[in-house]
Amino acid sequence: MSAFRGLLWKDFKTSKIWFYGWIAIILFIYVLGLILGRVTGEPTVVVVFVIMLGIFHLAAMPVIIFSMLRVEGKTQLWLHSPQSGFKLIAPKLIIAFIYSTLSFLLVDILGVIGLSSLPDDANFFAYWPIKEGIIFNLGITAAAINFSIWVFFFWTFYHALGKFPAIKNIRWLFILGFIIIYQSITAMMMSFGWVQDLFDAWTIDVPAGFAFTVGQGNADAGFYSEIIPFPILPFAFEGLVMITLFITSCWLLDRKVEV
User: Fold this and answer.
1) DSSP 55
2) Transmembrane stretches, by residue range (predicted)?
3) What is the per-residue DSSP string for 31-49?
């Protein structure tokens, strides 16, 4: 077995309990939505719960990754590992992505079941929102990967600072300072007119957004019929930032950070 496959298997064994727990939470919340819909006499409530579960996937992948990093921090295996930073980090991202994709697929199946079980007069959606659902899934997954890369970076950056005794107890201030500087630079760049014009030059048409409401005796959800131009370049820029952060995290880990 190659070292990379071995690391994948190790990360699977150390994180599977989190995945099983997350699946249990999904099923519990879904059943809770069914019960609430039955009690209130509004069966569409369960679909709202399914949508909320989809939104919760913003945190599922970063939380699983952070849990695996905590295990590494307690065992200190990385400190003496001969493997490169990439081989140590990439398996965790792959495992978390697989877990997130599988749980998202479960949520999609529950959503289809929920929509199929609605009475004809519910009219929760005027049509099967397949295209919008795919966009929703991809958007949530992309954001979750973004957050996961930031988790990797801040974890390695935090522990890399631990090698300097003078600042070891105030490392969190450097994390906070990095966030403030990054946000300030981003805000300054977006204030330039030529940057805005550049970002607006490449767009795709997407639904204006998604909304759902829950009130006493009623629930409703749907995608706005309005189609708006959506800029692509900001996401390309964010992708470049993610690649840079991932490479930096691998480099810091290659320096044998003390965890």
Assistant:
1) H
2) 17-39, 45-69, 89-114, 134-158, 170-195, 232-253
3) HHHHHHHHHHT-TTHHHHH
CA 101 to chain centre: 11
Whose CA is closest to 11, among 84, 79, 80, 66? 66
What pLDDT was estimated at residue 144?
Answer: 93
Which segments within 88-207 are labelled E, that is strand?
A: 203-207
Q: Which residues contact 216 (CB under 8 A, 6 or more apart)?
A: none
Q: What's the predicted TM-score (pTM) here?
A: 0.79
pLDDT tens sequence across 146-162: 999 999 999 888 888 87
The ranges assigned to domains in the chain are 3-254
Q: Which helix H or strand E contains 20, and what residues bound it?
A: helix 3-40
- The token pair that represents 70 in the structure block: 């905590």
Closest CA to 53 of 37, 31, 36: 31
CA 42, CA 224: separation in Å to the nearest integer?
Answer: 22
Q: State the Cα–Cα distance between residues 133 and 41, nearest whole angstrom.
A: 26
Region for residue 133 given its phi and psi (left: phi exceeds 0; alpha: psi -120 to 50; beta: otherwise): alpha
What DSSP string describes 207-255? ES-EEEEEETTEEEEEE-S-EEEEESHHHHHHHHHHHHHHHHHHHHHHT
DSSP string, 63-88: HHHHHHHHHHHHH--GGG--S-HHHH
Under 8 Å between Cβ of 55 and 133? no
Among 59, 68, 57, which Cα is nearest to 14's?
68
Residue 131 in this model has a pLDDT that exceeds 80: no
